[in-house]
């Protein structure tokens, strides 16, 4: 970061019946900042050019009617990203202020009513043009697909058009179940790894997947979708497409590992590597002209290169963060009942993890090449134990991060 970077420090909140004000103290006037409003869940993105955070940001009081929380991280070496998680749809006005010896501020007003005061001549408003692909550092409640940044006028980001969550929860008929796509690895002509006793990975993966399906079926507010439910082959891309078709909130792929050394053992949980995400983004952007429905229903083929890239990056970043979080909860549950090969979540470029808008994890349940673990993988009670650990990890995640508009969120 250059010496001339604008230091963003203290944050103060104030609220009235019609709006909440966020005042960020800065070491110098903010020369440029951009706003983008995203939906499902509602959140405001503030990108500060040549900015850097120099202290932790305080969170809003619990009774604040508008703000759930504020997060920050570096978008790249020269841009600070602030993410304001919202409790309801808002309209936004922002400007740069100076109070003499009191210093400089970036002021953001979040309006919940229909009217927004016009900016004063001394209140320069944010530019609305998003820049290059970026990364959001903290966890999302659930990365439902990003929408186009809301229409703006006079620097005011338009209303998202969504009802506040409280109103959504009152209409129980509009609520839906959380959908978990369960992917039993391999199948058909692709048996996967083999054990010394002749056990094939495809059969073990399907057996555990079916047990997981039964557990999710018993959980109110959750619904499973089996990517394959028999001994047949499903292409890797087709698996992602099927999950998207069913509007899955999570994709879980189940496998059994193998290694030349039959002493190696233990479970592992994987999410997509950064390299895998980068190559996938390039692929989607290159093919967006021929794709009718990309990021969670948002079409990219009518967007310019910058906007398409930003929308895809926002979705990928949020998806990877959620994937990492749910993978951590699954790994913790597996550690209670199984040996772990890796005690930390691993990253790899598995094709089935590359959906840009569905959190995706891959579970290597055990090493089928290890005779003792092969025996356990064939044992019904052990299969049930593995499935229950995965289920409990998934349930624990969604209890904390239920997608808006679901029965779990309403509970």
UniProtKB/TrEMBL annotation:
Record flagged with keyword Hydrolase: yes
Record-level Gene Ontology MF annotations: N-acetylmuramoyl-L-alanine amidase activity
Compartments where located: Periplasm
Top EC category: hydrolase
Segments of this protein annotated with the region Disordered: 114-174
Catalytic activity, reaction form: Hydrolyzes the link between N-acetylmuramoyl residues and L-amino acid residues in certain cell-wall glycopeptides
Residue intervals of the MurNAc-LAA domain: 240-395
Predominant place of localization: periplasm
Stored InterPro entries: AMIN_dom, MurNAc-LAA_cat, N-acetylmuramoyl_amidase_3
CDD domains: MurNAc-LAA
Family: Belongs to the N-acetylmuramoyl-L-alanine amidase 3 family.
Protein name (record): N-acetylmuramoyl-L-alanine amidase AmiC
Source organism of this protein record: Methylogaea oryzae
Organism lineage string: Bacteria, Pseudomonadati, Pseudomonadota, Gammaproteobacteria, Methylococcales
């Amino acid at each position: 970061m250059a010496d001339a970077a604008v230091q963003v420090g203290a944050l103060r909140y104030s609220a009235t019946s019609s709006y909440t004000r966020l005042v960020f103290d800065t070491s110098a006037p903010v020369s440029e900042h951009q706003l983008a409003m995203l939906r499902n869940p509602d959140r405001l993105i503030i990108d500060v050019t040549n900015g850097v955070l120099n202290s932790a940001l305080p969170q809003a009081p619990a009774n604040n009617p508008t703000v759930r929380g504020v997060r920050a991280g570096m978008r790249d070496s020269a841009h600070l990203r602030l993410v304001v998680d919202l409790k309801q749809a808002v309209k936004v006005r922002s400007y740069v202020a100076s109070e003499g010896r009191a210093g400089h501020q970036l002021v953001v007003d979040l309006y919940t009513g229909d009217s927004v005061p016009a900016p004063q001549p001394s209140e320069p408003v944010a530019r609305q043009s998003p820049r290059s692909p970026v990364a959001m550092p903290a966890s999302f409640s659930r990365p439902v697909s990003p929408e186009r940044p809301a229409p703006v006028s006079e620097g005011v980001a338009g209303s998202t058009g969504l009802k506040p969550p409280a109103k959504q929860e009152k209409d129980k008929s509009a609520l839906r179940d959380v959908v978990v796509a369960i992917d039993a690895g391999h199948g058909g002509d692709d048996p996967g790894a083999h054990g010394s006793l002749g056990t094939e990975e495809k059969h073990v993966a399907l057996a555990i997947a079916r047990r997981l399906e039964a557990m999710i079926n018993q959980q109110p507010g959750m619904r499973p979708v089996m990517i394959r439910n028999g001994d047949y082959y499903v292409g890797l891309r087709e698996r992602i497409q099927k999950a998207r078709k069913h509007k899955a909130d999570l994709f879980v792929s189940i496998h059994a590992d193998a290694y030349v050394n039959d002493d190696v053992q233990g479970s592992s949980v994987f999410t997509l590597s950064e390299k895998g995400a980068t190559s996938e983004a390039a692929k989607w952007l290159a093919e967006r002209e021929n794709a009718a429905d990309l990021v969670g229903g948002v079409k990219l083929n009518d967007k310019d290169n910058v906007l398409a890239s930003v929308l895809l990056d926002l979705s990928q970043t949020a998806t990877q963060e959620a994937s990492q979080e749910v993978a951590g909860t699954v790994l913790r549950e597996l550690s209670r009942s199984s040996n772990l090969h890796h005690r930390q979540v691993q990253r790899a470029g598995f094709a089935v993890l590359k959906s840009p808008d569905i959190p995706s994890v891959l579970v290597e349940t055990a090493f089928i090449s290890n005779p003792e673990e092969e025996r356990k993988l064939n044992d019904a009670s052990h299969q049930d134990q593995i499935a229950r650990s995965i289920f409990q990890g998934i349930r624990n995640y969604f209890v904390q991060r239920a997608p808006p508009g679901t029965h779990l969120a309403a509970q």
